[in-house]
Amino acid sequence: MKKLLNIMLVLVMLLVIPNIVKAEEVSIENITLIEHSDYVLEKTPASASGLNINFDLSFTNLDDYAKYEVIINNPTKTEYEIEQETDFKSSDHVVYTYSYEGDEKVLKANSKIKMYITLTYKTPVQPEELKEGKYVETNKLTVNLSNGTENPKTADASTMVLAMLTVMLIGSLLLYKYTKNKELLGTLAVIAVLIPLGVYAAEKLKINVETQITVEEKHRVSYYAFELIKKSEEANYNIFQLHSVLMNDDGLELMGMIQNPSVDPAYVNDCTPTQNEEYELCRVEIAYEIHSAGEKVELPSEITMHAFDENGTLVENTLKFNFNESQSVWFPDIGINPVNWREVNESSSWWYDWDLNDNQSIEFSEDTMDSNLIGEQYPSHIELKTPASFTMPNHDVIFYTFNACLR
Length: 407
Fold this sequence. Notes:
With 407 residues, the protein is of the alpha+beta class. The chain folds into two domains: 27-148 and 206-215, Immunoglobulins (Immunoglobulin-like); 218-401, no CATH class. 19% of the residues lie in helices and 42% in strands. It contains five helices and 24 strands. The chain has helices at 2-25, 157-178, 182-203, 249-254, 366-370, and strands at 27-36, 41-49, 52-59, 65-74, 80-82, 94-100, 106-107, 111-121, 134-146, 204-216, 218-230, 271-273, 279-292, 296-298, 302-308, 314-320, 327-333, 340-346, 350-353, 363-364, 374-377, 381-384, 389-391, 397-401. It has a seven-stranded mixed beta sheet, with no helix packed on it. Strands 2-3-10-9-5-7 form a six-stranded mixed beta sheet. A hairpin with a 2-residue loop joins strand 2 and strand 3 (52-59).
């Protein structure tokens, strides 16, 4: 009898321990932000540990969203299925959804699966919900993975465990009555507890998602420059519609469109042809930043744009905005169709124009105003060099560079 019980002990341990370890091996291998609205910021990059995921995002406008790709790795011999019934509920303001690649919801043994989690700001935060101009919410979500093992229809997991423990208790009482090996009886009692826990761990896994969402008002700082782009890729750029903003002679000269206002107005276009039929020269948003009102913003010290040299070869220019630093770059003369290019040696400047910014105010830092970072000043616009900075106002801001004017 004692020998038989020892054999049973070995068999039970061989069954239980691998199941427990197996469940722990399934994990999040990688998480990547693949899509998001312009005004969405990751306050902290998304992270994953085991089957736990953490998001820390900031939203600004309704319908702002962030979509993540989550890769789940299953190196075990057990197949799991993503369950439909799950604790993945939306909050009062944010909608949380998940999906999987190609409607494939089975995490096969020794394989990986891609799941997508999307967070969308859908219902506006009310003024009374704001604290110091911000609204912050935290949420805990769960996605269940099951290995397909059917539990009794009339019982949930906790009931199943209780039933098994009851069976084991009755078995233990019988053993206590008919065996004198009390030490073995104690060991079996421990195993009785481990069996249901081990079985349950192998049956279901939970992907735990914790989120912290901040809703606050932010604004965009746009930096415009002339850039060579492929005509076929025009839709990928934010092209500035100059003619819809400024149509007076002073404005056209200001933006470097033409040297002489009497030049054919046909040249006042959003994009201009070049000697290479695949490319056109356009005023594009070369860079942008998102800031909250009151933040200190430093103008970029340099940007990268492209041009053609005298041989028609595509070259990369680095424009630097320091008063004391000049560089050799290829500049376009856009008063000629197609554009003509010439090499110059000079420094570049950022310009702020009140007309382009709807005559809205902006406050430059004292260091900027008291130093030699201010160049030419006019009633409607001002020239700036880096490291100029300003306080982010309660509206969007546009800066541009004179990298495409006739000098």
